[in-house]
Amino acid sequence: MTALIPTIETDRLILRAPQAGDFAPFAAFYASDRARFVGGPLTAEGSWRMLAMEIGHWSLKGFGRWIAEDRATGAAVGLIGLFEPEGWPEPEIGWDLFNGFEGHGYATEAALAARDYAYDMLGWTTAISLVKEGNDASAAVARRMGAKPDGVVTHERHGQMHVWRHPAPAETSDGGMEAYA
Amino acid sequence: MPTSAIPVIETNRLVLRGPEPDDYPDFKATFTSYRARFMGGPLNAYEAWMLYAAEIGHWTIRGYGMWMIHDKITDETYGMAGGWKPAQWPEAELAWVIWPGSAGHGFALEATHAARAYFYKTLGWQGAVSYIDPKNLDSIRLAERLGARKDPDAPTIDGNDTVWRHPSPTELDGSQLAHGIDMEIAHYADPLFKPKGYAID
Lengths: 181, 201
Fold this sequence. Notes:
The complex is a heterodimer of chains A (181) and B (201). Chain A is an alpha+beta fold.
């Protein structure tokens, strides 16, 4: 099985395969306190293994998370896409913005494209996003995407996470553009 | 690097291929077991999956990694062998793991010997080390059979491991040691030969 990772373009971003050159911003984010809601902070070795895992995720599942790159500057702004390691409650749409790229709507823009890909290309009929208690910025992204709270799950490594249920494919046929309004 | 782009190595009895999705259950069985106690385990299912995915991504990031060891005829998997170097590791490691039920047939020796030859001849490595838990006697014996020597001065990963330095390409090439390894592998492959003593990888 080959991991041919597709590229997706949005207004401001390119979603592309994670690669070795992404390690610096990736590790800086996972070393920072901002990563406390997504399993961090991690050592440099832990971040490296995580980056390798994100690439292997594509091979094992046929989908995964992309690096979102600013089309204008080429900067890697975050890790956004589809995630379902073993034991995950359901296929998830996830977003981690790298340090310094918060507050521009990049997570929403990339996650909407990832959701369209999941619904249109992979045939997902539903999707969730998992948000840790206190991660208000992430909950706001879920809300902007039209997702609604749908209970709580407990994971052996990540602990309690709030489930946000995304609108079904039929409910997003307009491409979710109202999210930008 | 897609898994299909990972080089395939054939040896006497084995085929080394990139880690594939179908091989995951075998990997998980070992890494969630007591067998993994010298390799950061036992892991839970989530950790085992994340590590297996990282084994694949390692190839993309470094251009080398760990191969899955298959029987050349039956395709059954026996373990993994190859190179491993996450961030912050002092040197590239030559590493191996054999599923507990497949130990004692010389598969790790045969696979690691071939992996080392690939790294030396094709990738131009000038040497390699193996980081081994000092309690992991089977792996220490394998390192010795591969001609590696304990290097007490080399930096360790975290102080809980010992560093075994492999012979360089020049030291190995055409040496009595290299012939000895080939002979040991040939003996394992020959059903008439029954090694005496404790089963080793």
